[in-house]
């Protein structure tokens, strides 16, 4: 942002120099000077409609990608959705067995290469840490993969981004995931996956009951214990 402002002021400076130089040479008249001054003053105003256009375009991309449906998925549903995405690209993919996945949630292969993926379905206010990069990077030699990718609906910490760059691990954050989905233009929508794929069953950390996806009176999705009302443990699905 600061760099853009500096560039803008430099451009203004050279325009003023050009005007003064041409005044001395008698090339331009007063009306043209007034026109240039008005043009300079109008530049910030002209940027406003363009910014609004970019905002509308981004909102359309978000809606098309179904990112808010992804926010409501659990980890298993997110993996299934990514599997469907990469199938559209010609990959054959399998979800690894959770207890022995060696850092990879998906292993995908086409005629040219094998790719390992770690899927991180987070609340978009929570950043993915460096551990995800370390795990997927260590999974590459085990699965003899050619590429490692971490995909999240959130963002990454600075440390995770720096390590990924050094290790050549590809990171897809919330913004790049939206662009990726729109580029693939999958036949299966995120909403369809969320509604048809059952969330992975997990034990309640409070009473060892089963956590199940539920809808509150306010319409929010959450994970609730099967032993309710005796156990009132809940977990947010979409943050």
TrEMBL record:
Gene3D superfamilies, per the entry: 3.40.1350.10
Show the Pfam families listed in the entry.
Answer: Mrr_cat (PF04471), Zn_ribbon_Top1 (PF01396)
Q: Which domain of life is it from?
A: Bacteria
Q: Which UniProt keywords apply?
A: Membrane, Transmembrane, Transmembrane helix
Q: Where is the DNA topoisomerase type IA zn finger domain?
A: 201-237
Give an example GO biological process: DNA restriction-modification system
Provide a GO CC annotation, any one.
chromosome
| Domain (Restriction endonuclease type IV Mrr) ranges | 70-180
| Bilayer-crossing regions | 7-24, 30-50
Q: Which GO terms describe its molecular function?
A: DNA binding; DNA topoisomerase activity; restriction endodeoxyribonuclease activity
Mind telling me which PANTHER family this protein's record contains? MRR RESTRICTION SYSTEM PROTEIN, SLL1429 PROTEIN
Instruction: Return the protein name.
Output: Restriction system protein
The scientific name of the source species is Salinicoccus kekensis
């Amino acid at each position: 942002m600061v760099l853009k402002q500096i560039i803008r002021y430099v451009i203004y400076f050279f325009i003023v120099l050009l005007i003064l130089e041409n005044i001395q040479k008698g090339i331009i008249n007063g009306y043209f000077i007034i026109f240039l001054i008005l043009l300079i003053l109008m530049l910030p105003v002209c940027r406003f409609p363009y910014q609004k256009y970019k905002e509308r375009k981004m909102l359309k991309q978000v809606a098309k990608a179904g990112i808010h449906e992804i926010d409501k998925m659990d980890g298993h549903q997110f993996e299934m959705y990514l599997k469907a995405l990469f199938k559209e690209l010609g990959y054959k993919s399998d979800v690894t067995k959770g207890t022995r996945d060696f850092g990879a949630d998906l292993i995908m292969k086409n005629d040219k290469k094998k790719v390992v993926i770690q899927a991180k379905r987070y609340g978009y206010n929570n950043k993915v840490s460096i551990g995800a990069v370390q795990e997927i990077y260590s999974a590459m030699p085990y699965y003899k993969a050619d590429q490692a990718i971490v995909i999240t609906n959130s963002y990454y910490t600075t440390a995770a981004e720096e390590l990924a760059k050094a290790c050549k691990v590809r990171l897809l954050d919330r913004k790049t995931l939206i662009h990726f989905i729109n580029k693939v233009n999958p036949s299966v929508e995120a909403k369809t996956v969320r509604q048809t794929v059952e969330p992975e069953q997990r034990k309640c950390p409070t009473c060892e009951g089963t956590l199940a996806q539920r809808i509150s009176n306010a319409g929010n999705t959450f994970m609730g214990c099967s032993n309710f009302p005796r156990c009132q443990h809940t977990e947010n699905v979409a943050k």
